[in-house]
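Example 4.3 (complexes with small molecules)
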Amino acid sequence: MNITVVGAGAWGTALAISLAANHRVTLWARAAEQVEAMRAARCNQRYLPDTPFPPNLTLSANLSAALSVADLAIIAVPTAALRSILQQIARMPNRFGVVWLCKGFEAETSKLPHQVVAEVLPEEFRYGVLSGPSFAQEVARGLPTALTLASSDVEFARDTAHALHHARLRIYASTDVVGVEVGGAVKNVMAIASGICDGMGFGYNARAALLTRGLAEISRLGLKLGGRPETLTGLSGVGDLILTCTGDLSRNRQVGLLLAQQHDLAEILHRIGHVAEGVYTVREVRGLAQRLGVEMPICEAVYRIIYEKVPAGEVVADLLSRTPNYEFDLNP
Ligand SMILES: NC(=O)c1ccc[n+]([C@@H]2O[C@H](COP(=O)([O-])OP(=O)(O)OC[C@H]3O[C@@H](n4cnc5c(N)ncnc54)[C@H](O)[C@@H]3O)[C@@H](O)[C@H]2O)c1
Ligand SMILES: O=P(O)(O)OC[C@H](O)CO
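Answer. The structure with SN-glycerol-3-phosphate bound is encoded below.
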């Protein structure tokens, strides 16, 4: 299969390296200088240093040319850039499958990626989301990873999962696009909360409680938006929540660890040097939760720390002083 990976950050580069074992892969980056540097070094020194490119991985700075030969386009840019990339794809005369990797809600519209895709791409395109617990560095090194590919088009989900699957990259198919996207987006907010919790030295008990109550929040929002309960306990829900909240490779967790040390947000983001989607997602999730009447106190706490500059200690004290209630609804 001819695969064009659109976006050469950490995740696009890692997946391009992984898929090049079985496919003809072109990795596209928007900056011609970045492509030249990657060509010369046969490595993405800016976003994924230390992993050399396989000899058959092709690089391109020309999106139309890279897509003109594609059977499948994999969109590997942050959520903020999804719409503009889709608009360029929509102008292509040829048709190919489209898979996106971004984990977030679109800023201002609070839309999930599949809603943006449905607005922009003409009907003839077939598409889906690929998500789950996956640190780019580990996938690039060929360490075992399992993901979910979800599409409302069941044949597309099954066939694409089958085509991308290999021994070190297990891909399960699903039709629950909403559940997969909500799990992938909101776990980033929980990872920031987990970083704050650990950075403040609250210990393992507190982290376990945070993850569990975080899952309750993710599930409440996911179900309200139409996701399925089993998806939220699957790879793209619990799986990605555990990874991102506990693994120090997570950029969102790193944001939380640095916020606990009272670093300034702009300085934190500069220091991390990659997108940390939870910083933007928390605004949309908080707005959605308020509009839909979904109780999400951990998301509210992260929002107050980041956007209202309330000291983390004060926000945590407020969280812990909430009146205890039933763990689950008595009449679900
Ligand atoms: N890194 C991971 O381990 C990982 C794993 C799973 C999912 N994701 C998700 O994948 C998405 C991308 O993450 P990443 O780690 O690759 O981010 P990154 O910060 O490493 O790289 C982002 C890339 O997108 C490019 N980009 C930004 N805006 C663009 C635009 N308008 N047009 C073209 N290119 C643009 C940047 O130049 C950069 O190459 C995020 O939504 C992230 O949550 C990341
Ligand atoms: O580094 P993060 O926090 O963006 O997380 C990366 C992936 O989403 C983990 O599955």
